[in-house]
Amino acid sequence: MTAVLESRARSLPRQAILETRGLAIESRIGGRRRTIVCDLDLSVAAGETVGVVGESGSGKSMTARALIGLLPQGLSARGSISYAGRELLQLPERELARVRGSEIGLILQDPFTMLNPLLRCGRHITEVLERGDARGVSRRARRAEAVRRLAEVGIAEAVDRYPFELSGGMRQRVAIAAALAGDPAVLIADEPSTALDATTQKEILALLKSLQEARGMGLVLITHDLRVAFAICDRICVLYAGSLLETGGTAALEVEPLHPYTLGLLLSEPPGDRRLAELAAIPGVVPSPDDVAEVCSFSPRCPWAQPICRAGRPPLEPVAPGRLSACRRIDEIRSEMRQRHATVVQPAPPRDTPAVAAPLVEVELVEKVFGDTSSRRVQESVVALAGVSLEIGPHESVGLVGESGSGKTTLARCLVGLETPTSGRISIDGIDATDYDALSTADRRRLRRTVQVVFQDPYSSLNPVRSVGSTLREAIELYNPRSARHARQVDALLEQVGLPASYAVRKPIALSGGERQRVAIARALAVKPRLIVCDEPVSALDVSVQAQILNLLSSLREELGVGYLFITHDLPVVRQVVDRVYVLYRGEIVESGPVDEVIGAPRHPYTIRLVDSMPRSSPDWLAASAPPGAP
Prior knowledge:
The structure is a single chain. The protein is α/β, with parallel strands linked by helices. 33% of the residues lie in helices and 22% in strands. The strands form four sheets. Strands 6-7-8-3-9-10-12-11 form an eight-stranded mixed sheet, with helices on both faces. It has a six-stranded mixed sheet with strand order 18-19-20-15-21-22, with helices on both faces. Strand 7 (186-190), helix 7 (198-215) and strand 8 (218-223) form a beta-alpha-beta unit. Helix 4 (121-130) runs parallel beside helix 6 (168-180). The longest helix is centred in the first third of the chain and has 18 residues, at 198-215. The radius of gyration is 26 Å and the shape is globular.
C-alpha cells in the first residue's frame, strides 16, 4: 500500500489551469430563491484528474455546467471561475462560446443529449472543426480528419453511421471524439460511464485516461461511484448538499477518510471480493442546501453529530498534509472512524444453500427472436435468447448477470408474460407459463400472484398522478378484492419497506429515488408473491441509497421467505444478495454456480472479463482493458 500511496499521492494541486473560488449556484425558478452550490473551491492542473463525488442532489452536475457556462435557464452562478487567467463568469456569451469545445470540453452521462440523431457521426466532428482553424479546409480534408478523430477513440468505421445505429458504448466514444475535436486543455466528464455496463465502462474510462495522458489534458470526473473515482483520479473532492466536505489525494482518502460522510460512502459500497452481513447504509437523504446552511450539512445523518456540529457551518480546513475536511470533531472521532472502517468491512459467514427438491421456476431451452424470422429475411431478425435454461427454487435468490444486450431483460419479460418465447418452455409453480395469452384466467391470476417484478426506474413504473396509497390499494385489490382493511394493509406494506404511513398521501414526484423504489417493492409485495424479478433495481440509485435497498431486499427475504431473480451487470451488488448466479452472454448461459465460486474463481473467458472489469484502485487496472467486443 505504501508503494501505491507514493505512486499516486498527488494530493497537492499543481499550477491550476481551471479553478473556482467561492462559486455559488442559485435557482430562481418559480420566483423562489434556492441554493444549489455554495462557496465551492475547486481546481485542476494540466495532466491531472480530479474527481468530484457525491450523491444525487449534491450539486455535481450543475457544477459541471457552471464551469462551461451552460447552466439551465433560471439558474445563475457567482463567485469566480478562472481559466488560464481569464475570468469566465465575466466573459460575454460570444467569447465564452469560443472557450467551449476549443479550450474546455464537456461529456455528459447520456451521449444522446450531446449527439444530434439526424446527423451522421462524422458530421458531429466536422461541426466542431469548422468552428476552429479548419473553416477554410476542404470538405474531403475535414472528413479525413473526422475519420482520424474517430479512429483515436477506436470507431473509425462509425463515420457515416447515425447515433441510433450504435451501442451505448460506441455513442459515448463518438461523444468523446466530438468533445476532443477542438483539442481542449480541460475536459469535464459528467458521469461518462454511469449508464454503461461494467465491461464497456472500463473501456470508456481506459480510453479517457489514455487520451488525457497523451494530450496532457486536465480532467474533471464527476461521479457518484467511488470505485470509479479511486480507479482513475489523482485527487477527490467530496461534495454534499452543495458544499465541499473533504478533499485529498485518492490513495490517502481511500485508506483513511477524514469526514464521516466520506466514510459513509465508502462503507456503503458493496465489495466485489466478499459478501457482507449487512451494508452500512447512510440513513436518510441529501437535504436541500438551504435547509442546512447554518449547520454542518451532514449533521442530520451523522452518527457522531453533537450540538457543536449544529452551532454554525464548519469551514473546510487542513487536517493532514494535502487533506482538507469540514468536520469540527475529526480530531475527537478519528480513531473511532478508523476502527469502524476496519470492522465493518469484515466478511459475513458463508450462507448455507439448502438442496431444492422441486424448483419454483424452470426455464428450458428458451429462445426469443425479434424481427422477421422467415428464411428469406433472416438477416433482419435479432436473437435475444439462444436456448437459455435455468432454475429457481422456493425462497432462493438467484442472480442473472451480463452486459447490455445479453438478453437479461428479455428473459425477465418472458417470465412475467410481457414477452412470449419463440421456442422452449417456462414452468412456474407447476403451470406452463410459456405463453400467458394461452392460459386460463385462473392460471394467469395465479401466476401474477406468484411472480412480481421491480423495474430499474421506479418513477416510470409508478403512475405519477396517483398517490402511493392509491397505487398500493390497487395492487391489494387484485389479490384480495373483498378485503375491507385496505388502509391497514397499505400502512403495513409501507412499514415493511421502511416508509412511514404518512407517505400514503404522497405522489411519486414528492419522493426521492430510493423512496420511489421502496414503493415499487411494496407494490410487488402487495400480492404476497413467492418470487420477485428485480431488473436492475439499484443501478439508477446512489451508493448509499443502493445499500439501503439491498439491505431491505435481504431482510424481506428473511422475514417473508420471498425469493428473487436479481438481474444486474454489477458483480459486487449481485454478490451481496444472491446464492447462485447465471452468467448470460449474447443470449446464452456461459457459466453458472454458487455466486462466491463464479465471481471468486471464474472459468469462462467472458466471466473472467466481467470480474476484471470491476473498478479497483490498482494503477494497472485500466491498462488491462480489453478491446471493444472481446468476449
